[in-house]
Recover the amino acids of this structure.
């Protein structure tokens, strides 16, 4: 198993340095109750964490997918990260209505009271990504190119 | 405007390939929209307000789309639950018969529709080398791998011909070759304007080199699928004929519930190996899709 030790300032400032896979898995467990996730993780600067299954002997331009950003106050999952972790999560997952899902996918914040710092939003079987909870509001991180009603997506 | 005048050379060439009125009619008819359910994110096709779906007969997770709005503006599209993909282009990944855990090369992968389809059949287990020679095409490939949640792909940027050095390495190889894109005229008229016979000839040279490399890096017992979205025999049966003449490759017939035609065993003055009859040609009028060509080749062993 290939594990890269992160030397980025954002991580070394957290005190005890861990390998990045262990750190991501620790956050997944603490924040979302996710255990036994069978993936490898790699940090590629600015706390951006990529998830992949190793397989290669060729010089890669990229491997795997953007999974999450490791912020100072926790792990903020990407949409794909929320699909992977959301299925295994036992806490900090909030079910939203269709109206809320549409609003969220337009890039708007949602007024929801929650407990954790970062919340996975779920609409039926869909995971809509992860938002930051602050004072009764879930702050939106859906990238512009993943929002609905964006002409650039057509 | 008379479409003939856009590119008379094209019409003279295709008169020899398919002289039917239907061919011309469908080549200029707007393309039906189709999508594929991304099995990495969903098990069954959701209902999407404002749209109806008709299953693509040859792909269990493929659907033709009817509706007034744009499917690309739905939550399902933006979350990667569904993926826009032309219906005939769903065939190569099915013909490849991948299984979880395999090592697969997608030699000319961008924009990644077939790569993501292959990953879904592999259930994200195993390894896909998603290669493209052009840096400018990698962004869209990476973006589509991301959207579909593909974890088992590595993106490389190599000249496909260089894979010949990696002998007997892959269980499956897909070569969806760069081509003259006649099948895509339904999507964009620019492909009609851009078409030139000398491009067909130079593309065919490149395709012959690529298919040799694809075959070299295939493991004995492995499957190589060669496909293009064009219908010129020089870029299709001519390329397969070349591989059959210089290697021990065997060709298998593609048995799908898709209307199509047998490969041409001759074209103009060219006579091809009789086995190219097992290639599958799909002309636009056959299923109201893009024109497409697929050959399934096996390395003995």
């Amino acid at each position: 198993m290939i594990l890269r030790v992160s030397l980025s300032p954002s991580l070394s400032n957290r005190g005890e340095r861990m390998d990045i896979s262990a750190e991501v898995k620790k956050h997944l467990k603490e924040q979302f109750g996710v255990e036994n996730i069978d993936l490898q993780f790699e940090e590629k600067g600015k706390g951006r964490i990529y998830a992949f299954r190793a397989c290669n002997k060729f010089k890669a331009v990229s491997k795997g997918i953007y999974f999450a950003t490791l912020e100072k106050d926790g792990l903020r999952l990407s949409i794909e990260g929320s699909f992977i972790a959301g299925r295994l999560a036992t806490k900090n997952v909030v079910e939203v209505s269709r109206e809320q899902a549409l609003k969220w996918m337009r890039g708007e914040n949602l007024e929801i009271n929650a407990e954790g710092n970062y919340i996975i939003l779920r609409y039926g079987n869909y995971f809509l990504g992860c938002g930051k909870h602050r004072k009764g509001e879930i702050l939106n991180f859906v990238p512009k190119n993943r929002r609905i009603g964006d002409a650039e997506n057509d | 405007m008379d479409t003939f005048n856009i590119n008379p050379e094209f019409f003279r060439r295709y008169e020899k390939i398919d002289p039917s009125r239907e061919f011309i009619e469908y080549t200029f008819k707007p393309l039906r929209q189709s999508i594929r359910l991304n099995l990495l994110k969903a098990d069954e096709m959701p209902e999407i307000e404002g749209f109806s779906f008709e299953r693509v007969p040859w792909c269990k997770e493929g659907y033709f789309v009817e509706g007034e709005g744009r499917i690309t503006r739905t939550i399902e599209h933006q979350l990667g639950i569904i993926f826009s993909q032309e219906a005939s282009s769903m065939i190569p990944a099915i013909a490849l018969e991948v299984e979880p855990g395999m090592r697969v090369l997608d030699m000319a992968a961008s924009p990644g529709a077939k790569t993501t389809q292959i990953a879904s059949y592999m259930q994200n287990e195993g390894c896909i080398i998603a290669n493209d020679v052009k840096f400018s095409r990698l962004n869209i490939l990476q973006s589509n791998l991301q959207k579909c949640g593909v974890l088992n792909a590595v993106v490389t940027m190599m000249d496909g011909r260089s894979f010949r050095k990696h002998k007997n390495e892959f269980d499956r190889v897909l070569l969806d070759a760069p081509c003259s894109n006649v099948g895509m005229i339904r999507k964009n008229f620019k492909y009609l304007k851009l078409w030139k016979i000398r491009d067909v000839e130079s593309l065919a040279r490149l395709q012959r080199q690529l298919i040799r490399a694809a075959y070299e890096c295939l493991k004995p017992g492995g499957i190589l699928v060669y496909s293009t979205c064009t219908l010129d025999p020089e870029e299709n049966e001519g390329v397969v004929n070349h591989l059959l003449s210089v290697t021990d490759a065997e060709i298998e017939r593609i048995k799908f519930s898709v209307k199509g035609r047998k490969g041409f065993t001759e074209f103009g003055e060219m006579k091809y190996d009789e086995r190219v009859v097992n290639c599958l040609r799909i002309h636009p009028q056959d299923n109201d899709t893009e024109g497409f060509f697929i050959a399934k080749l096996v390395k003995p062993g």
Remarks:
- The radius of gyration of chain A is 16 Å.
- The first helix of chain A runs from residue 9 to 12.
- The helical segments of chain A are 9-12, 20-32, 79-86, 98-105.
- The interface with chain B takes residues 39, 51-53, 55-56, 58-66, 79-80, 83-84, 101-102, 105, 123, 125-128, 145-150, 153-154 of chain A (CB under 8 Å).
